[in-house]
Design brief:
Elements: H1 2-5, H2 13-33, E1 37-40, E2 46-49, H3 53-56, H4 61-71, H5 74-87, H6 93-97
Length: 111
C-alpha cells in the first residue's frame, strides 16, 4: 500500500508498516472515545480532526480511512457512518483516492 512505502531515510518497510498500524490504532481509539472528529467535505473527501502529528506519523487521512475500514473497531467505523449521516453525504472513495484533503480549517484542495 502507498501508505507503507513513504519511509524515512533508513526506515525499513516493516518499520513503516508498524508505524501505519499504530497510527490507525490511535485513530480508531480516538474516534471511539470522541476525541477525534470526522469531517466530510462538500465533494466527499474526509478529514480527521484531533489526531496529533505524532499519532498521525505522516499518514494521510485517505490512507488512514482505508486502513480504518480494514482493521478499525466497529465503534470507530460507526463514527464515520454517523459523520456521513450528519453531513448528508457519503465519503467518496474516488475523491479520497484523488488526494482531496484539508489542512486544519483551510479550504479543501488536492496537490
Amino acid at each position: 500500500m502507498v501508505c507503507d512505502t513513504q519511509t524515512l531515510p533508513g526506515q525499513t518497510l516493516s518499520q513503516r508498516k508498524d508505524e501505519v498500524r499504530r497510527a490507525t490504532e490511535a485513530l480508531s481509539k480516538g474516534l471511539a472515545a470522541g476525541r477525534i472528529k470526522v469531517t466530510i467535505g462538500p465533494q466527499g473527501a474526509v478529514q480527521f480532526e484531533g489526531l496529533s502529528a505524532s499519532e498521525r506519523s505522516r499518514v494521510s487521512d485517505g490512507c488512514l480511512l482505508r486502513r480504518l475500514y480494514v482493521e478499525g473497531s466497529a465503534l470507530a467505523k460507526a463514527k464515520v457512518a454517523q459523520a456521513e449521516q450528519l453531513a448528508g453525504r457519503k465519503i467518496d472513495k474516488q475523491v479520497v483516492a484523488q488526494g482531496w484533503h484539508r489542512h486544519g480549517s483551510g479550504p479543501w484542495h488536492k496537490h
